[in-house]
Amino acid sequence: MPKAHSLCLAMMFVMISSLITITWADETGASGAANGEASSAPSVSVQDWTQLDDNEQELTVWDPIEPVNRGVFWFNDKLYFYLLKPVARGYRAVIPEAARESVGNFFYNLAAPVRILNSLLQLKGREATDEVLKCIFNSTFGIAGLFDLGVGLPADRDGEDFGQTLGHYGTPPGFYLVIPILGPSNARDAVGKVGDSLTNPVTSPYYFKLKTIEIIGAQALDKINLISLDKDTYESIKKDSLDPYLFVRNAFMQNRAAKVDK
Amino acid sequence: MRYMKIVIIAFLGLLICGLTAYSAVAPKTQIQETVDRVIDVLRDKQLQGEARRQTLSRLIRARFDFSIMSQRTLGKYWRTASSAEQEKFVRLFSDLLEASYIGRIEAYSGETVNYGEEKIEGDRAEVATTVNSGNTHIPIVYRMVQRGEEWYVYDVIIEEVSLIRNYRSSYGEIVRKEGFSGLFRRMEEKINELQQSS
Fold it and tell me: From the CA of B14, how many Å to the nearest CA of chain A?
C-alpha cells in the first residue's frame, strides 16, 4: 500500500495504544481517589491508621457472664490438657494418620443431613446440591464416606448449621457463652446446636435411634479423632496471646459472623 | 505489507509496555517472594540458631509494617497515649508479633502455599493464599498498602479472622481494665516467655 497511507495508520495505532496505556495506568490512581483517601502518593502519612478500613466494623462482643465463661474456659482448658489430649496422643500413636483422616471423613459425611437441611432453609440451592452430591459420591465411591473425594467441589468443609440459619434470618448472636466440653458458642448458636442434634444422624432420635451411651461414644471418638489430627491449634493460641480467653472469644465471634454472612 | 507488519509489531510492543507498567508493582509477587524466602530459610539445614532468627526477622520486618499494625491495634487508645508510650508499644508489639510468627513457623513441616487472587484498589490490596497441610487447607489473606514501589502487609486474615481486629479488641479490653502499664507488663512477660521457649 502507498507509504503515506501506511504512515497514517502507524501514527493512529501509536496514538490509540498510548491512550490505552495511559488509561490503564491511570485506573489505579483514579479508583484510589474514589476511595475517599488522600490521593497523593505517600497517602500513608495522611492516613489515620487508628481507624479500621471502611468495610470493617469494631468487634464488640457482649459478654455479660464473663466470670462464669472464664471459669468454664478454665475448666475446658484443664479437661483438654489432662484428659482429651493425652487420650488423643495415645490414639495417635496407635492409629496411622490415613486411618484417622478416614474416620474424620466418615463423621463429616455422616453429618451431611445437617448441612443439606440448613442450606435449603437458607434457600441456598447451589450449596445444598453440592452437599447432596458430595454425600452421595463419598458414600458410594468413597466407601461409606471413608474417603472424601471432593469431586472438584469447593474444599470448604464448614457448611451450614442451624445457628447460621437463625443468623441468616436476622437473629443476632446474643451473649457469648462457653459450653463445658464443647467450647465457645453464643446464645443463638447454642440453640442452633440443639436443632442440629435433631438432624445429625448420630444424635437424632429419628435416624439410627442410638442409645445414649452409644451417642456419647460416637461423639467422643469423633472429638478425640479431630484432636489427634489437629496441629496444636489451642496450644499455639495459648502460647502467643496475652489473654487466651479473649483471643478465642474474639476469633470465634468473628468467624461465626463471617460464616453467617457468606 | 512490510509497513503493516512493523505497525502491528509497534502496536503490540506499546501494549506490552503498557501492561508491564501496570503490573510492575504487584503485591502478590512481593508477598510471594517474602513467603518463599521464609520457606527457603526454614528448609535450609545450614542456617540455625541466632543467624536463622536474624534472617527471618529481617525478612519479616521488610514486608510487615508493624508501626501501622500497632496503630490499628490500639485504635482510640493510640491518641490517649504519650509519644513515649506509643514508641514503647510499637517496639513491644513488633517484638511480640515477630516472636509469635517465628514461633509458629518453626513448627514448619513441609507445608505448601498456593497463591490465589489479588484485589487492588488504589494503594490497598488483598492477596489470597492457602496453606496446605495434609488434608487441611487454611485460607490466609494478606491486606497490604503501597508506599512507593513496595507493598507492606498491615493485616493478616486467617480463616476469616482478622488478626489485627482481634488484637484490637483484646488489647482494648486490657487497656480499659489495666491501663497501659498493665498492657506493657503483660507484653513484656509474653515476649520473655516466647523468646525463652524457642
Answer: 6
